[in-house]
């Protein structure tokens, strides 16, 4: 049975932990870690599998797969610790991989140490189609993310421009630019644009629009890709997670589905 450790026990980490604990993912949850240590201890004690709460280095040594569900800032430390110890890593804060040097460093570590870097589809669908399409010429990739005000609060772009998001009474585009910039301005809102960039045309050519929308209660992502294969449109209307309005519930489900796939010999989809 695979042994899993989770770094970051927030909206996504907790959902993954519960799915391992109740057998949805056929694996053993050996440890969790979160800088909110007391909360992590309380949460760990609520699980049947009784995972330990261990700092990163000790967590890594005890598991086969390390899940990062913390923040972009945590990705380097978590992924390097896992991969250099021959442990696979699953990354949720995908925006961190817009750093080309970091991405190459992690790829090299994974190759040299015979382990893997898993990036779930997260809060969007359609990455399989974009991955297939990108074998041939792609002309454009765009993603428009619409969230209610509470799903965008605290983003560096919002703070820097002193935007009072609650004041918008109609849907308003507040950002338009390449994913390379979007992911830095909205690190907790558009990781999906990073995943799309990684399978498609990269961070400079993937265009991102962010819309604050007072008329919706869901987190909506619309993707359009045009290329030699034809046209692809996808729209997803995500229920926000109970505890973090920036994060869609589907992101956690996607992480759980990825872990299930890792534990399964049968792999379906591109
Ligand atoms: N790929 C995708 O499609 C999606 C990705 N995400 C990303 O996934 C990540 C997790 O999301 P979510 O669960 O909603 O976030 P939460 O904020 O709910 O939980 C993250 C937890 O990790 C803790 N944490 C942050 N940094 C560290 C660290 N270096 N070491 C240990 N613990 C740490 C946080 O503590 P504290 O509260 O002190 O910060 C918090 O308790 C985020 O980066 C988010 O942006 C989210 C949605 C979709
Ligand atoms: O959960 C979502 O809807 C998207 C999100 O926050 C992200 O990609 O960072």
TrEMBL record:
Enzyme Commission code: 1.4.1.21
Reactions that this protein is recorded to catalyse: L-aspartate + NADP(+) + H2O = oxaloacetate + NH4(+) + NADPH + H(+); L-aspartate + NAD(+) + H2O = oxaloacetate + NH4(+) + NADH + H(+)
Record domain Aspartate dehydrogenase: where: 170-256
Pathway(s) per entry: Cofactor biosynthesis; NAD(+) biosynthesis; iminoaspartate from L-aspartate (dehydrogenase route): step 1/1
BP GO annotations: NAD+ biosynthetic process
InterPro entries: Asp/hSer_DH_NAD-bd, Asp_DH, Asp_DH_arc, Asp_DH_prok, L-Asp_DH, NAD(P)-bd_dom_sf
GO molecular function terms attached to this record: aspartate dehydrogenase [NAD(P)+] activity; NAD binding; NADP binding; oxidoreductase activity, acting on the CH-NH2 group of donors, NAD or NADP as acceptor
Classification via SUPFAM superfamilies: Glyceraldehyde-3-phosphate dehydrogenase-like, C-terminal domain (SSF55347), NAD(P)-binding Rossmann-fold domains (SSF51735)
Residues at which NAD(+) binds: 123, 191
PANTHER family given in the database record: ASPARTATE DEHYDROGENASE DOMAIN-CONTAINING PROTEIN, L-ASPARTATE DEHYDROGENASE-RELATED
More info: The iminoaspartate product is unstable in aqueous solution and can decompose to oxaloacetate and ammonia.
Function: Specifically catalyzes the NAD or NADP-dependent dehydrogenation of L-aspartate to iminoaspartate.
Protein name (record): L-aspartate dehydrogenase
Gene: nadX
């Amino acid at each position: 049975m695979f042994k899993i450790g989770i770094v970051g026990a927030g909206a996504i980490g907790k959902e993954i932990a519960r799915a391992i604990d109740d057998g949805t993912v056929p694996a053993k949850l050996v440890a969790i870690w979160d800088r909110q240590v007391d909360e992590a201890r309380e949460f760990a004690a609520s699980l049947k599998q009784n995972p330990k709460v261990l700092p990163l280095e000790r967590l890594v040594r005890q598991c086969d797969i390390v899940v990062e569900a913390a923040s972009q800032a945590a990705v380097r430390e978590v992924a390097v610790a896992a991969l250099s110890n021959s442990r696979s890593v699953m990354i949720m804060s995908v925006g961190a991989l817009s750093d080309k040097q970091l991405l190459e460093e992690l790829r090299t570590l994974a190759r040299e140490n015979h382990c893997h870097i898993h990036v779930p589809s997260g809060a969007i669908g359609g990455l399989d189609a974009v991955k297939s399409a990108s074998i041939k010429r792609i002309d454009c990739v765009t993603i428009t993310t619409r969230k209610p005000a509470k799903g965008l609060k605290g983003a560096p772009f919002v703070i820097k421009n002193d935007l009072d998001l609650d004041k918008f009474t109609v849907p308003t585009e507040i950002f338009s630019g390449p994913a390379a910039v979007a992911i830095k301005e909205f690190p907790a809102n558009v990781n999906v644009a990073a995943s799309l960039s990684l399978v498609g045309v990269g961070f400079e050519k993937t265009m991102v629009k962010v819309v604050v929308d007072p008329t919706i209660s869901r987190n909506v992502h619309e993707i359009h890709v045009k290329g030699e294969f034809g046209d692809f449109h996808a729209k997803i209307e995500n229920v926000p997670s109970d505890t973090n309005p920036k994060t869609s519930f589907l992101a956690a489900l996607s992480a759980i589905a990825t872990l299930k796939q890792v534990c399964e010999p049968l792999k379906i989809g591109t």
